[in-house]
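Below is a typical protein record.
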Amino acid sequence: MKNNVVEQIIAFHDVDFSYNGEPVLENISIEIDRNDFVAILGPNGAGKTTLIMLLLGFLKPGKGTITILGKTPAKARKFIGYVPQYSIFDKDYPIHVIDIVKMNTLYANSLFPSYKKEVTEKAFSLLQKLEIRNLAYRNFYELSSGQKQRVLIARALINEPKILLLDEPTASVDVTMEKDIYDTLKVLNCNTTILLVTHDVGFVSAYVNKICCLNRFASMHSVAELTGKSLFDIYSENSKFLHHHCKL
C-alpha cells in the first residue's frame, strides 16, 4: 500500500539544454512525487534521451536546476536504477544472466570482479521475483527480448534504488510480453518511483498515473485528465504522438 503523504522526489525548474547552441530542451519545469509511475512520451528528436542523461547527471543543464531526493543528479545517481535498451551490450561477449545482474554492484575500477555471497543471493532472489531464476546460467544473448528486459530490470534493482528509470522497456517485444513487463513494473511501483521513456501509448495509460509529454518543451498531466481518444494519434509514419491540449 502506498503512503498517502505526497513527497516530491524529482524537480526540474526552468531547465534549458542545448547541443552546440541548438536548443534541445527549453523551460522544463516538472515535478514527480514518490511512487509516481510516469510515462515520458514524445516523437523522435523530442529530447527524451537528453532528459535521461540530465536525470542521471551525465549532462548538466545550461539553465535552471534539477534536484533528485534533495540532491544534484550526480550525487543522487546511486539511488537510481537505470534500465537501458539491451542493444547496448556487446553481442559477441558471452556472459551469463546472473553475472549481468551482479555486475551493477561493481565499482568502476574493479579489474577482477569478486562478489560477496549476499550479492549472489540477492541476484538469485531478484531473478526469482521476476520469474526468470531458471535462466541464471543461460547466455544473455540466447534469451528472448522480453527475458532480456527482465534481466536488465533485475540488474537495475540489485542496489535497491529509490527511482527506476527505463528507456523503451517494451521495444521489440510482443504484446503478451509487453503486458507481462508492465504488470511487473506495476508491482515494483508499490515501493519504487518509476519513469519510463516510450513511444507506446497502447498500454501505458492503464498502468501509469502521470504522463509527461515532451517535444523540446514539457507538459505534465495526470492520466485522469486525458481522454481515451486523445491517446491515439499518429504523429508520423514511424512515431505515435500524444495529441491533446498541450499541443506538443
About this structure: Confidence is low (pLDDT under 50) at residues 232-245. The CA atoms of residues 86 and 135 lie 16 Å apart.
